Amino acid sequence: MSDLTHVTSPGGVAPGSGYSHVVLGTGTFVAVSGQCAFDGEGRIVGEGDPAVRARRVFENLRQCLAVAGAGFDDVVKPGYGVGDVAQLPAVRAARGAALGTARPPARSAVQVAAPIRPAPLVEIDAFAVAGGGPA
Q1: Cα(82)–Cα(87) distance, rounded to whole angstroms?
Q2: Which residues share a beta bridge with 22?
Q3: CB burial readout 38-71, b (16+ within 10 A) else e
Q4: What is the rounded distance in angstroms from the CA atom of residue 8 to the CA atom of residue 62?
């Protein structure tokens, strides 16, 4: 696990709500491509259920991070793309379960008007810093 510093409200910047404005650390940089709610065979999981989909996306992220020797504690910035902002409560609940709320990562979230594949509805990528010493 990396040693990360989370800054939720740098001087002169309004505090974030559920995210840090800055996360820094040392170690191996890890970039995980956008993950959708697909199982290992490429089938969509949780058709019509944003909560099931969001949990599957975070499970896919967990598996990808593990390949790099990283975990959710090492995530410095996930990026969220949703087909409808009404899905954000389900995404936030899954994020809280996976990443916790004590040390929130930096983040971005957008509503996507025209995804490449419309079925997923939620896509999340992540940057992480694995291993390393003190920040």
Answers
A1: 7
A2: 7
A3: beeeeeebbeeebeebbbbbbbbbeebbeebebb
A4: 24
Query: Is residue 118 pLDDT above 70, yes or no?
Result: no
What is the model's pTM?
0.86
Per residue in 3-61, pLDDT (tens digit) is 888 898 898 999 888 889 999 888 999 999 999 999 999 999 998 899 999 999 999 99
Q: What are phi and psi of 38, to 5 degrees?
A: -105, 145
- 44 with 38: CB under 8 angstroms? yes
Residues 6+ apart with CB under 8 A from 35: 57, 60, 61, 64, 123, 124, 125
User: Which letter does DSSP use for residue 15 in this model?
Assistant: P
Tell me: pLDDT of 135 over 50: no
Helices (H), 47-130: 50-67, 88-99
Give phi and psi for 25, each to the nearest 5: -175, 180
- In this structure, what token pair is assigned to residue 17? 């709500």
Confidence of residue 119 (pLDDT cuts 50, 70, 90): low
Radius of gyration, alpha carbons of the chain: 15
